[in-house]
Amino acid sequence: VTTPEVTSRLSSYRCLAKTSPCLERFFTEKHEWVNVNGPWGTVGISNHAQEALGDVVYVQPPEVGQELNQGSECGAVESVKAASEIYSPVSGVVEEINNTLEDKPALINTSCYDDGWIFKLRLSKPEELKSLMNEKAYEAFLKTAAH
C-alpha cells in the first residue's frame, strides 16, 4: 500500500537520482513563469518576454506579504524601449523578492530563469498550476500567432 507520504518520499528520491533539477517550470500566456517546489513558487518572466523587452533597466516587484490572485497585476519590468506589467501566474502570498534586481535589473536579460527571478510566494491554490503550460506546451504556444 502506497500512502501519499510514501509517494512523496519516493518522488523526492527519484528527483535526487536525476541529473536535471526536480523543479518543473510552468508558463502563462503573458510570459510569466513559476517554478514550484512543494508549497513554494518562484516567479519571473520568460526568455521570450525579456528578449521582446530588450535591456531591462528597472524592476518593480510586488510587496512582501502581498496576497496575489492568479492573473492579477503585481509589478512591472521596464526596459530602454518598453514597459510591461507582471501578472502573478498563481495565487499566493509573496514571501520574498529578489533584492539583487534593484541594483542589477539586467539579470533578467542574462539569467531570466535562475538569478533573474522576481519574487517567491507560498501557493494558496496549487490546483491553478493545471491551467498553466509546461515548457513543451509553452514552446508550441510561442510558435502560434496567439502570443
TrEMBL record:
What are its cofactors?
(R)-lipoate
Q: How is the cofactor bound?
A: Binds 1 lipoyl cofactor covalently.
List the keywords (alphabetical): Lipoyl, Mitochondrion, Transit peptide
Please list the residue ranges annotated as the Lipoyl-binding domain: 40-122
**Where does the record place it?**
Mitochondrion
Q: Please give the biological process terms from Gene Ontology that the record holds.
A: glycine decarboxylation via glycine cleavage system; protein lipoylation
Single GO cellular component term? mitochondrion
Q: Which residues carry this modification: N6-lipoyllysine?
A: 81
Pfam families according to UniProt = GCV_H
Please give the function described in this protein's UniProt entry: The H protein shuttles the methylamine group of glycine from the P protein to the T protein.
Question: Could you give the subunit structure recorded for this chain?
Answer: The glycine cleavage system is composed of four proteins: P, T, L and H.
Q: Can you tell me which family this protein belongs to?
A: Belongs to the GcvH family.
Q: Which protein, by its recorded name, is this?
A: Glycine cleavage system H protein
Q: What is the lineage of its organism?
A: Eukaryota, Metazoa, Ecdysozoa, Arthropoda, Chelicerata
